[in-house]
Amino acid sequence: MENKIREVPAQLASSAYINKENYQTLYKQSIDNPDLFWAEQASQFITWFSPWKTVQSGDFKTLDIRWFIDGKLNASYNCIDRHLKERKDQIAILWQGDNPNESSTLTYQQLYEKVCHFANVLKNLGIKKGDRICIYLPMIPEIAIAMLACTRIGAIHSVVFSAFSPDSLSARILDADCRLLITADEGVRGGKKNPLKSHADKALEKCPNVKHVIVVKRTGTAIPWNQKRDLWYHEELENADAECTPEKMDSDDPLFILYTSGSTGSPKGILHSTGGYLVYAAMTHKFVFNYQPGDIYWCTADIGWITGHSYVIYGPLLNGATTLLFEGVPHYPTFARFWEIVDQYKVNIFYTAPTAIRALHKEGDQWVKKTSRKSLKILGTVGEPINPDAWEWYYRVIGNEHCPIVDTWWQTETGGIMITPFPGATPLKPGSVSWPFFGVLPLVVDEQGNPVEDGKVGKLIIKKPWPGLMKTIYGDQQRFKETYFKEIPGNYLTGDGADRDKEGYFWIVGRNDDVIKVSGHRIGSGELEAVLNSHASVAESAVVGAPDEIKGNIIYAFVTLKSGIQPNDQLKKELIQLIKDEIGPHAIIGTIQWAKDLPKTRSGKIMRRLLRKIACNELTDLGDTSTLADPGVVDDLVGERKK
Ligand code: PRX
């Protein structure tokens, strides 16, 4: 554990909204008197058509948790309309394409017009409040327009990351019973094309309830066309009315569904409701990034993930910010790309993932030194633990030692940032996610739910509801209860291991369930195993994560072949390709180890703890293996690992 403390730069400390003095007071208020605290935040950050009657009801036992009860609001109105008086000509979305010579802007007024038009397109196609719309788009301005247009008419968007395969897309469309799909002819990333429309066509073979597909022309390539079903985005937009009154949504009405991987089973449709999520996204964006009017803000996350929802779209637009949307990747055309964009647009706040920092660090300082990065004030990271080495490089080389780093811990389920430093208030410890955000009560506990001593690793739980918390798993309240509230009753189980030091700083160790974080992407071992097991030659498989310097973790698969089938390299290639095809290219298997057998307990459960140790090459102390049905299996696995 690194304990070097970095004090807050004096200049920032004086301008920060949250400072050393008021953090403790505000945090205490948020815990001691949550209703008063959240009522103030909700009035400050959101414009309500009619106010709520009760701030919050329900708890982690009843699980019918509601925020700002009976309050009426609209997300697109809050992200756009209410800013028009003051900032209609300010840029809302600053877009840079994969090709550095391609860029565009949308002012708040232009965004308003596009969103109203597109909301009318949806209405004309019969989309109503509560209908689910699937958005399968790359990082182009139309993705923001589509999301906001859905919210304008009360439709629930379900954004599917554009690298997902046709099978992953159809599974998500079917689970949410989506009525319409919005996609593009192709996506472009790192100079490579992604055939989105073809993928969508393939996915829709299994989805009869999708009656229309709206296609954005991104590259103009020739694509297959279904006359009865497919519509061009630009043509539909031209014919739509310009005015669209925002739907008055109840605070508890669903805002969006976003699929994420869990330890077992198929991906979960995390459902967020309107009022609580929006208050939390706006407030965390303001306080964690010390956002000031006029700042140019850039979060590099893809909108297909929660970070893109909360901190590329909702948080910044709710605060009337200029948010940068980047279609490309950090290494194209060169490793200087991020920093060139920072200089070009004078970015003030920059938020990215440790995996990107590590990958760029590896390429050396020369790419960074070509740029000035003078505009930067605050740096952020999210998605996985950042090792102190990468932290130091980010702080020293990227931020020139004058930008605090906010290492923000949170999850798809939490809606917004939960544990984080506050720039201007928190002395920083490289590698620690620092302090709880307002209203958040985290605790580290043992298997029985008892608090562990400071400095000891345990399970990270959250003791009380906060407004950003998911509403449920779409269509599966039972799974919601069992996943998050069963193991430590009355608390929200995060699935992460963590410890807290004597000064109250939290340190995240990583997942302690069967979720693997690969380059910040969340992948469930169960999903991977189901795909591997579907191969004709595979009898059984077990997948774990193994540490990797750049990606954080790699996918390490133990595979048992059917009898009579000989392991060979061609088969390895096939299995790697199968995962790529069935899930998407972000799910790349790092290692396949052939296993004569998998280590199972007498009751038939795979002993994953053991497999993790073998994958991590920790072969000397494998712990207690006495409950294994056949302890000899371990020797074979260890022998194979040593080869
Ligand atoms: O393991 C934690 C890790 O990412 C998980 C949540 O993944 P996802 O729902 O995809 O959301 C990622 C973006 C919010 C967590 O359970 N994680 C997230 N942020 C951090 C982190 N691990 C360590 N440090 C972080 N700052």
Quick rundown:
The chain has 643 residues and is of the alpha/beta class.
Break the fold down into its secondary structure elements and pairings.
Blueprint: H1 10-15, H2 20-32, H3 34-45, E1 54-57, E2 66-69, E3 72-73, H4 75-79, H5 84-87, E4 91-96, E5 103-107, H6 108-124, E6 132-136, H7 141-153, E7 156-159, H8 166-176, E8 180-184, E9 187-189, E10 192-194, H9 196-204, E11 212-216, E12 230-232, H10 233-238, E13 249-250, E14 254-260, E15 268-273, H11 274-288, E16 296-299, H12 306-318, E17 322-326, H13 337-345, E18 349-352, H14 354-362, H15 366-369, E19 378-382, H16 388-398, E20 405-408, E21 419-420, E22 435-436, E23 442-445, E24 458-462, E25 472-473, H17 477-484, E26 492-500, E27 506-511, E28 515-518, E29 521-524, H18 525-533, E30 538-548, E31 552-561, H19 569-582, E32 589-594, H20 608-615, H21 632-642
Helix pairs in contact: 2-3, 6-7, 8-9, 11-12, 14-16
